[in-house]
Write a structure and sequence with these properties.
Two copies of one chain form a homodimer. With about 140 residues, chain A is mostly helical. Chain A has one domain: Winged helix-like DNA-binding domain superfamily/Winged helix DNA-binding domain (Arc Repressor Mutant, subunit A, Orthogonal Bundle), CATH 1.10.10.10. The first copy, chain A, has seven helices and three strands, in the order αααβααββαα. The first copy, chain A, has helices at about 10-25, 30, 35-50, 55-60, 65-80, 100-120, 125-140; strands at about 55, 80-85, 95-100. Chain A has a three-stranded antiparallel sheet. At the A-B interface, α1, α3, α6 and α7 of A face α1, α3, α6 and α7 of B. The structure holds a DNA duplex (23 and 23 nucleotides).
DNA sequence: TATTGTTATACTCTATAACTATA
DNA sequence: TATAGTTATAGAGTATAACAATA
């Protein structure tokens, strides 16, 4: 049997993510009416998970530079999917949240992602899926 | 406790990969002398894992379009890190493998990745890491 | 001084389609 | 016809640095 190194995790994670993107792209027409793209989709899903958060917190959660947040958020704001509001307690901070339309788009997106992930997870059991999520949530 | 959906896996996987890239980038000067970039790095690691394979197989393993393979491989070939050879059994096929210099570069890269992944995996035990790899290898 | 967010720039990654050559 | 690989193009993602405003 082939020796597996921890570095193989990088290959496996990358492959998993790429499989999700690839799977989604096959059915993009079904839900990506607003053509938010992969990055926009991740941002919307992060917002659905986090609720109203500052751009800085988004940048931290998505492990992407704050300058990218500005652009992505501006794009989604232009499409009416997210809302930006100045923080009342700190004049520097901009809070971001989903609009009603954004909620609807992310709902369709989540459904599509659930489909794709469901297919990917077919080789392992529901219990193992729970275990996987539990392990990952402790890591990230 | 917050309900977790399977779709959260997408966020967690993305975050893990981004953390690897971010961690590597911090120490890029230490090993990325050839400036292969993230894509080139993944390709080199895939080759280290797979040995000599066709471009088509690489495209399949990395879940990326074949046209991207051409470009990435040409870039790495120009840097002397990979070698292309025509298949003897099928005139259409190009086999790709690491050069001696490529082996050396990937070795440094793997060391850096192991460092970063080691840090990321700190919250879980060695046994759990094994379990995680075992689950993932069954999925991808 | 430090932090939040913006802007500008250059570079890499990606999807798509049209193409050549071999099977 | 089908498959392996190439080329060209446009668009999306990313890192970096310089900047303004607030703390």
């Amino acid at each position: 049997m082939k020796k597996t190194r921890d570095t193989d995790l990088a290959l496996m994670f990358d492959r998993f993510m790429r499989s999700i993107h690839f799977g989604l792209q096959q059915k993009a027409g079904d839900f990506d009416r607003k053509s938010v793209g992969p990055g926009g989709g991740m941002l919307l899903m992060t917002l659905a998970d986090a609720g109203q958060v500052s751009q800085n917190e988004l940048s931290r959660r998505m492990v992407r530079d704050k300058s990218q947040m500005t652009r992505m958020i501006q794009g989604l704001e232009g499409k009416g999917l997210v809302r930006r509001e100045n923080s009342t307690s700190d004049g520097r901070v901009v809070m971001v949240s989903l609009t009603a339309e954004g909620e609807q788009v992310v709902e369709e997106l989540l459904e599509a992602v659930a489909d794709v992930i469901g297919d990917l997870l077919a080789p392992i059991s529901a219990n193992e899926t729970q275990l996987l999520k539990q392990l990952l949530s402790r890591i990230v």
